[in-house]
Amino acid sequence: MSANIVIIDYGMGNLRSVQKAFEKVGFPAVITNDHTLIKKASHIVLPGVGAFGDAMKNLHTLGLDKLLHVEILEHKKPFLGICLGMQLIAEKSYEFGEHQGLGWIEGAEVVRFKEGSLKIPHIGWNEVNFHNPSVLFEGIPNHSNFYFVHSYYFQAPLTYAIGECEYDHSFVCAIQKNNIFATQFHPEKSQTHGLAIIKNFAHLKKEDLC
């Protein structure tokens, strides 16, 4: 199956591990911030680790915020946000101040876990409860474990939630809105089930999602 996958390079995190995950399931992916290559892509992936404000600044400086708006919201290309990439599609974040996000998910905000008995950041394997059916989790058993590394989480209505995780309280850790998919956990670090998510995403066709 033919897919032209690009992984957005905006200076936030190790993108090579995501690229290797796609290669492992038989789908070459290009790491780039070149607008021409992104416009030619069939699938777009936005990974990332680091601070929300810095990430949004980098996207804006590179002109990627407007380009992604066109390619994802107007052209309806399959999109996968990973970790920080999921948080960036919220309306706003409260990490080190208040910052506006890409705003693709209505009512979504990024907030910090409260200090308490559990360690922050949330690091390690946790069970994910599938909330609504999604092609992203096809062939993966409910309550499977995935790998997390984060101090802030995606606080949003359950309208688009396809996965929830329990860490001090239940929070949305995976969403789907038409052609837009995102996970707080790292599928590229989540072994067999994570690679299944990568493969499921690579097999998507935009005409089946809109």
Q: What is the gist of this entry?
A:
This protein is α/β, with parallel strands linked by helices and 210 residues long. 25% of the residues lie in helices and 30% in strands.
Q: In CATH, what is the class?
A: Alpha Beta
Strand percent estimate: 25-35%
- Known CATH architecture: 3-Layer(aba) Sandwich
Number of domains: 1
Number of helices: 6
Instruction: Please report the distance between the alpha carbons of the first and last residues.
Output: 20 Å
CATH superfamily: Class I glutamine amidotransferase (GATase) domain
Helix and strand sequence: EHEHEHHEHEEEEEEEEEH
Overall body shape? globular
Characterize the biggest β-sheet: 9 strands, mixed
Q: What's the pLDDT, averaged over the residues?
A: 94
CATH fold field value: Rossmann fold
- The gyration radius over C-alpha positions equals 16 Å
Q: pLDDT under 50 segments (min length 5)?
A: none
* Annotation, overall tally of beta strands: 13
The SS-based structural class is alpha/beta
Give the fraction of residues assigned to helices. 10-25%
Q: How are the strands of the largest sheet arranged?
A: 2-1-3-4-13-12-11-8-9
